[in-house]
Predict the structure.
Amino acid sequence: MSREPTFENALAFAGDLIRIPSMSGEEGEVAARLREEMRVLGFDRVEVDGLGSVAGVVKGRGDAPPVMLSCHLDVVAEGAHEEWEHPPFCGDVVDGHLHGRGAMDIKGPMALQVYAAAALANRAPGDVIVGQVVYEERGGWGMEHLVRSGLVNPAAVIIGESTYGDIALGHRGRAQLEVVIRGLASHASAPDRARNALDLLPGVLTGVTALARRQESDPVLGPASLAPTDVRVRPESPNVIPDEVIVVLDWRILPTDTEASLIGRVKDAIAEVLPDVPAGYAIECRLASERQTSYTGRSADRNLLTPGFLMEPDHAVVTAAAGAVGRRGAPDTAARCRPWTFATDGGWTCGVFGIPTIGFAPGEERYAHTNRERLDVEEARWAFSRYPSLILAVQEAAAKKS
Ligand SMILES: [Zn+2]
């Protein structure tokens, strides 16, 4: 059995993918559908790692280092179905747009990547890997695991998060931190016996607010930003004096930030306001974490830190990509290069593993994670037509670099 790698077939495949819901940790069925399509399209190898991420390989004509195209298998929750103009899992094309959860983030671009790779069979200077990973929407466990596992070893990565036809160079990262204030609980009728953890909340918030006002800035990515977003009080009982208060911080970070530097800065900022923590109290600062379980049955406590990354605008992979894609309507002009506003798995591939990474995909950012999610079919057709030149140019540039 075989299938022609045409745009029409890719669009039909995207509709099939949208019709399979796949929240993080529930990507098994969509992964199976993807493997089936890769087989029908004649991929030379299709492998699955321990977390259930899928890596298909299309052999090249030579032995240039492999390039990897990557999207993710998971999507965010669709919310109330009646709020959608088109049902969230319809995958229909109406009025020139593909509709549904994942249309542009990210099942539409995923289908284009799979078909673009298949169309390059035995034509690229080296292997083309299509790595579609789990758990991207919850911080990138899938990509971290796929690269660490050694199942793939790409010399460059092309991420299929929407760029509206531009070349994306990087993005800020995100860290979720917690400041934990500990005291001593007691019955609310006897405050003398307690160390009320809420007593230190104003000092902690004052320190955090001062830190938020002095954030560093990157000339391309813009400033980091820090905001307290939640306060949790334990125990949650109005007639008990709490012994624990957790202040949650959302921090949009720069690529140079690390777990240690972030925690150190929060500690210092609080110490400026509260130089001596009163007897009977303690203040701890840590990265937030959550338990994640893959559809293959593996569990881990994951720190909520998605790294950022930034490629130099004159890096050979960036200029090759921009030249190969060109501007829609002006193919002789290089594509615009800019950062994404949101975070992607490029934070892992480039920010952590140092693999040159760029982004290219159709789709407008404003529709991502909304109940109006859609992909313009003509824009997708244009992006599909640009993928072969893009892959070849990136692979050649990466081969020269390495
Ligand atoms: Zn996405």
